[in-house]
């Protein structure tokens, strides 16, 4: 069990370079990120699509090399001295052709070391309601997701990074999983960072919440529930639940983006297009001419 600080990030700025693009074409995904998380915490990352949540989790998992800043997990640089017992679980796993083959779940779990973690594996089999006789190619996305979670959680991890990985779970399995994760942080001092867009039933889960927008933290990880002070008074008028606060934040993010588009501070790329680019009308005329759906 670790004590003290689980995650520490300072002066982190990260840019994506488009395939085949030039350095000047790089898109900034994270801007000047600075925060730390205590061990045993459960942090919820809140933000719209494209806010930078997935990029941040990828970097914490050591999956993206950074250009600027420092990222430490339990005092170790994730790129120079990768910390043990760090687990990242994202949605892309279930789309991998290798996990959709005709292999029995019991054999699949044993192939990744399930026999070494039998007690925890069996506990997770009950929590996630998994049938060891399922065949990986013949089960639903939600059932395959349960197998992924069992695979990732059956070892004694110290830091767990979850990126939308509960999206396929039914409400009962999700609730059982969240209770398990909560127990792990309380009993073992493990740490969880969780990005999700599903906020129902989450009010009692996080110890910290954070708000991301356009690659920056509008609100750094802050203890939850929010204290009723001057800083949070206006926010808490939106409601005291995570769902209400997330809805308020995302609506404010969109309103700010629209305002900046009107002021010419950023290009308008979303929603309806009022300025028709040269050639667009011709393409529309072409498709109308050959539209046989009427």
TrEMBL record:
Signal peptide start-end: none
Keywords per UniProt: ATP-binding, Hydrolase, Nucleotide-binding
Alphabetical list of PROSITE patterns matching this protein: ABC_TRANSPORTER_2
Boundaries of every ABC transporter domain copy: 7-239
GO molecular function: ATP binding; ATP hydrolysis activity
Keyword Nucleotide-binding: yes
Identification of the protein by name: P-loop containing nucleoside triphosphate hydrolase protein
């Amino acid at each position: 069990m670790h004590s003290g600080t689980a995650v520490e990030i300072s002066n982190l700025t990260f840019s994506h370079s488009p395939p085949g693009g030039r350095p000047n074409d790089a898109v900034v995904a994270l801007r000047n990120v600075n925060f730390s998380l205590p061990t045993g915490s459960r942090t919820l990352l809140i933000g719209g699509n494209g806010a930078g949540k997935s990029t941040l989790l990828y970097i914490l998992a050591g999956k993206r090399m950074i250009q600027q800043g420092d990222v430490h997990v339990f005092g170790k640089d994730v790129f120079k001295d990768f910390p043990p017992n760090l687990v990242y679980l994202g949605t892309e796993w279930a789309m991998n052709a290798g996990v959709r083959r005709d292999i029995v779940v019991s054999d699949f779990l044993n192939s990744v070391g399930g026999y070494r973690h039998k007690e925890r594996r069996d506990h997770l089999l009950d929590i996630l309601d998994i049938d060891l006789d399922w065949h990986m190619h013949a089960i639903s996305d939600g059932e395959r997701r349960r197998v992924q979670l069992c695979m990732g959680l059956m070892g004694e991890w110290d830091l767990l990074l979850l990126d939308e990985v509960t999206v396929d779970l039914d409400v009962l399995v999700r609730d059982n999983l969240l209770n398990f994760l909560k127990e792990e942080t309380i009993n073992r001092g493990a740490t969880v960072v969780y990005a999700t867009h599903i906020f129902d039933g989450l009010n009692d889960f996080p110890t910290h919440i954070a708000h991301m927008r356009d690659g920056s933290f509008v609100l750094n990880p802050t203890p939850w529930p929010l204290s009723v002070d001057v800083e949070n008074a206006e926010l808490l008028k939106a409601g005291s639940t995570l769902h209400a606060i997330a809805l308020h934040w995302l609506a404010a993010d969109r309103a700010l983006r629209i305002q900046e588009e009107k002021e010419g501070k950023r290009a308008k790329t979303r929603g309806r297009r009022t300025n028709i680019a040269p050639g667009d009308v011709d393409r529309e005329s072409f498709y109308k001419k050959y539209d046989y759906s009427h």
